[in-house]
Design brief:
Four copies of one chain form a homotetramer.
Chain A: H1 3-10, E1 12-14, H2 20-23, E2 30-32, E3 36-44, H3 47-58, H4 68-77, E4 88-96, H5 97-103, E5 110-113, E6 134-136, E7 144-147, H6 150-175, H7 194-197, E8 206-214, H8 215-225, H9 232-248, H10 250-261, E9 264-266, H11 268-278, H12 292-301
Antiparallel strand pairs in A: 2-3, 3-4, 4-8, 5-8, 6-7
Active site (chains A, B, C, D): 225
Catalytic activity (chains A, B, C, D): dUMP + (6R)-5,10-methylene-5,6,7,8-tetrahydrofolate + NADPH + H(+) = dTMP + (6S)-5,6,7,8-tetrahydrofolate + NADP(+)
Cofactor (chains A, B, C, D): FAD
Chain lengths: 305, 305, 305, 305
């Protein structure tokens, strides 16, 4: 009996909305970075649950909007967010602490994190691949520029690895455990309190948590964190979650790409620039009323401006 | 083929945690008040999902706490609330507007309400049963005292009914619909905007919504709204939800009754009063340090104080 | 000694950021609708508090962005919302209950509402002005169309007034008070519980609350509620609050108008339409890939499309 | 002209409620741990603002409750939390990253954190004092037991210091800066992206943020984090904040100590135990219905049980 047959036996019957494409990957870790993963643990609702909730709101008013997909597009375009809050997903995520620190800034979610006060962290830390070791960007104060050449990047990787290892060695010493096996080292003494020892670990150590969020807030997270300005190490998590989103709620996914993550917000001044240009008025960077940065950004999207 | 057989066919297979006792009542309206109801629409998680989330947090630290029920009690007692946030429930509720106004003060929930800007409200309003028509309480500024005698209460009920009916009559006139059938009355004219006409309805008209909340916040709601100080008309909803809670997460339900809704918070001064009394010191209302109200409340719980 | 001199004496000295233009209107009711008002009760922070908070985040990284206004524009444009959460405002608002029901859907705010369980509501209800009595819009399911002619609107206004008055008459009877003076009517009997009697009032009765919100969430509220799709009766509150915003944080106000309330979000498909059009490609409604509604909306902004 | 005179000149006049005891310490850092601090940056409201908000809710119903302190006690005892949400405080806090990770789990607050993607962290890390280096508690899975003897604790402190220093040395190398002066080291090369280099720092490095929270949520934070089960390194921050609370809202502070932080929640079972004991019934650990842990805890509070 293979693995899939066993899973089949574990299934229960339910009257709740069920999404086959998501059931296929339920509980299965999707690898991210060198030791991280995302696992879907549970979900509530599907595309039709959003339509159902919207129809409670609009009652007979939505009768004519016969197609669900059209209604979902309408809701997304007009930022009618409450129906999207009617779906919920729960993920198990393993991620480096410096990524967790960004992630947790999204407050409208539920989190159960592994506690290093109670338990001992494993010897697992993130080391970037060589092609991710980049210079500080000159133009973007928070971004990466060119990749280092091989020799230089190896030196950086060695530093990261050696420091993480030495810190763990001392962490294990403090806890009085063998750093490989986790066994007690010296039976004659106790370990230092775990809540103290943990401060010796570097920010690339992995932590893990259960993370539960509604669909509206998930999309807000994904819009920000799949953006090319987001740090690579959180963006790769967002990208895997986009694939999960597509499996879970395919109509919402399409609407999200068109109206949210792939959209562009024109400022009042930029509206005027395009309006004038379409009316045949010549607009230059100087007389556009836009800042240099805004002009360049608009030009990036509309090169024939 | 009877109804239950049909439902059986509608079931899907899922790997998600499934609660049979809750599946039994899924989608079925539970009546509340004269026209209201609660229906469970969806749920995520069960008792074991809480244990599972807690074990992510405490890791190896919970190994010894072998019994799930013990762990749930421990979490509830010590207000370790995050594992309870890992379960979620979605209800469809029909309720009078004045009840909805109290309900919505619980902000940590998702709501999709029927919109009377888009759609027309049905002619359904709440009329209390005669035994609920009470005088203003003298002692409790926000409560009810004695029940009115039959003749007086009938007069009140007639007023409520007549005013609600007359208001709907004019609401329907404004909308240009027949108040019984909802058909257009006069084809030669339009109705007044629904968003305007609705203001003529009284606060006992029924509205409805989808309401989604996590288990931790649900229990907070239930603690406040099943309390005997809560208004009767919201308390009856809370009581039905307690029954739902018991079906859904029986271990959590027991812990909730013991450590939360059935518990009593002793102030620092009250701790000293009981401490002294157990040490054989005589404590009187006057020298207790408690306000008269606090003393009476404590005496209500411990008559032999 | 005039009123302004008295107020001057009431002033305290503080090291906190203080905004003179807002102090001028502090505590003074700004009238809205027929009996409503908004009063600023307290505030925390000003334009410079946002800059200060942003500089904590970006540290030396913001050194070059020497102008505060530029930084505020940058934060607004890129939806870096956390610095805007560092300002807070507290308002006292009197508003019809049906408006309050929309308002309270904004959950990220603190509210203390007048309780009709504890206290008696005054005889104050909202009656629209005649030029606000409109037919249901044909095109917009939730909006207003043409204004009724004089005779028809008077009939509606009479209905609203008479129903509100009769409901209050019975409310007062139930409470055993004189509806004009609020004095006890009949000393020989008690009133019905206030929590019951209130259900007989119509949704245009006024309630009031203290409402406290941070600047980021205030702007979200204002964007939605000052929009021309918002119901007139809440929009007039939003418009008064925009004036308050302008007094309080003038740089933020300008950025809000340009990048948020006056902006337009182009979907991915709409970006392509404009891109092609600027490249000289002819785009028609049919081959645009936009829905009819979206095409018309885009055409409304860019008539020369 | 001394410092206080200068500050006096900086003061503005305001009609807002002002708290002199808090103005005295405004902007002044209160030291915590070896390099941390708390500074009050701004505040909104005082004791009377809570009373004022409560009186909006209860209207004439609170007329008789003539004393503000009595009303505040009443609100605190009965968990009427909304009036406490009407006050707000903003703090500037410098704290070790592992403390920040606990702190941020309180989601109902606004945060602007120093960004190590934009800017370079200073060489400042937390080293406990020797009397804080304790063994893992045997009884409490998340706590500290006995303090290590001098020689052993020195060894731990050396490890912590050496690892933090070496990690910073490599952090500075990656960034191409001098670790003491922050000057560029080698003009011929760029530094590695700051968002990458930061992962090499240990969790005891200091970060800082602006943190804004309402009074209700602040007290919830303080109740949990000033508890003796909280980790020492966050508890010392909570203790300083309790002093700030006392200056800011002295009546609320007293009520908080009596009804919240100093209170004890009796479970339903524990109520019965005390009830029986006061009625003269002998109760033993075995027949109490309490778990061993609960019995011991109750016995800790009432030794004569």
């Amino acid at each position: 009996m293979d693995n899939n047959q066993i899973l089949e036996l574990d299934k229960s019957k339910t009257l709740r909305p069920t999404v086959e494409a998501l059931e296929e990957i339920l509980y299965k870790p999707i690898n991210v970075l060198d030791h991280g993963f995302i696992r879907v643990i549970d979900y509530m609702g599907d595309d039709s649950a959003i339509v159902q909730a919207a129809r409670v709101s609009y009652g007979k008013g939505t009768k004519k909007m016969s197609q669900d997909k059209g209604l979902i597009n309408y809701l997304m375009k007009h930022a009618h967010t409450t129906p999207f809050e009617m779906c919920e997903i729960k993920l198990h995520v393993k991620l480096p602490i410096f990524v967790a620190r960004q992630w947790v800034r999204h407050r409208t979610a539920n989190i159960n994190e592994y506690s290093a006060r109670y338990s001992i962290l494993d010897k697992e830390f993130y080391i970037p691949s060589a092609d991710q070791i980049s210079y500080q960007s000159i133009s973007n104060k928070q971004g990466r520029g060119e990749v280092l050449d091989h020799e230089d990047s190896q030196k950086i990787l060695d530093m990261l690895r050696q420091d993480a290892e030495r810190c763990y060695e001392n962490y294990a010493y403090m806890l009085n455990i063998d750093e490989e096996t986790g066994e007690v080292l010296d039976e004659s003494r106790n370990g230092v309190a775990r809540e103290l020892a943990r401060m010796n670990l570097t920010l690339n150590y992995y932590t893990q948590w259960y993370w539960k969020i509604d669909l509206h807030n998930l999309m807000h997270f994904l819009k920000l964190r799949s953006h090319h300005h987001a740090q690579y190490e959180i963006r790769v998590y967002a990208e895997k979650m986009l694939e999960i989103l597509k499996r879970w709620v395919p109509c919402v996914y399409d609407a999200f790409i068109n109206y949210s993550s792939g959209s562009f917000n024109l400022s009042k001044t930029a509206i005027k620039v395009i309006h004038d240009r379409l009316s045949g008025v010549h607009i230059s960077k100087e007389n556009s009323g836009l800042s240099a940065r805004e002009w360049d950004e608009l030009k990036g999207i509309f090169p024939n401006l």
